[in-house]
Amino acid sequence: MATSFPVTFDDGHVVTAVRVDADGDVTDALVALGLDRPVPVLVMVGGAGGVDPSDDDRLDRLFTDGVVPAVAEAGAVVVDGGTHSGVMRLHGVARARGGATYPLVGVAAIGTIVLPGSPPPGPDAADVDPLHTHVVLVPGEVWGAEAPWIARVATKLASGSPSVTVVINGGEIVLDDVARSIAARRPVITVAGTGRTADRLVAAVRGAPDDPEVVQLAASGLISVAHGTDPDGLAGRITDALTGSPAS
Q1: C-alpha distances in angstroms, 82 versus 87, 211, 220?
Q2: Are 26 and 153 spatial neighbours (Cβ–Cβ below 8 Å)?
Q3: Residue 217 dihedral angles phi and psi, to the nearest 5°
Q4: Which of 63, 66, 169, 223 would be 231's cystine partner, CB 3.0–4.6 Å?
Q5: What does the mean pLDDT of the chain come to?
Q6: pLDDT surpassing 60 at residue 157
Q7: What is the pLDDT at residue 120?
């Protein structure tokens, strides 16, 4: 059985963590975290270290006025990569600033992240975000190893409840995240104007040529587009997806 443990940061924040072995069952991990009842789930994927700091203010509005209030209204849980970078860091800050209490669950490969008081496992390891509420530590030594586990955790958390994936910015690994969401028949909202992979998916949905993987994802019929200049519109799409309402 999995056992949870506290991760305490220098600033006093405490994140509840659990470790999953290579052949581990995420069910046990979620029970250990107290997250063992079906609940709507938003999977957040997107830019980490590749997000330009000059975009922080613009992207922050998407979380403050879009993602956070929509998730809170739906009584949902958010699953992401859990690091103190890019969209994950921005989400943690916006959730805390807004006083939201929904669980923010990071799923991170153990060989890619740094826990407080421990040495980095590699030169490109990233800190765990202290404003997440839970972290599921999964096997893996390279970035992207967490992708199948993010999908598994989200599917198990939802257990038949509505779920949706939101793409903001992002690099090549995000394409794997999106492919796994589509394989699980989880709808995907890609946010136009946020850069890189999100904008490639937007263009492909609108018929622009791209490499076969992106075109195939766009042809799934599960990807819709929200506008990065319209946080309220994004909130509406998330709310519709997480409450089972028809898309507006």
Answers
A1: 10, 29, 28
A2: yes
A3: -60, -45
A4: 66
A5: 94
A6: yes
A7: 94
CATH 3.40.50.450 matches 5-243: yes
Instruction: Give the tens place of pLDDT for each residue, 35-52.
Output: 999 999 999 999 887 777
Residue 246 has pLDDT above 60, yes or no: no
Cβ within 8 Å of residue 93, ≥6 positions away: 60, 63, 131
Name, in order, each residue with C-beta under 8 angstroms of 131's C-beta and a sequence gap of 6 or more. 13, 89, 92, 93, 95, 96, 104
Burial class, 72, CB count within 10 angstroms (exposed 0-12 / middle 13-18 / buried 19+): middle
Helices (H), 101-223: 147-158, 172-183, 196-205, 212-218
Structure tokens at 2: 């999995």
Closest CA to 88 of 33, 26, 169: 169
Provide the pLDDT for residue 23: 76
Does residue 108 register a pLDDT over 80? yes
How far is it, in rounded angstroms, from Cα 7 to Cα 181? Answer: 29
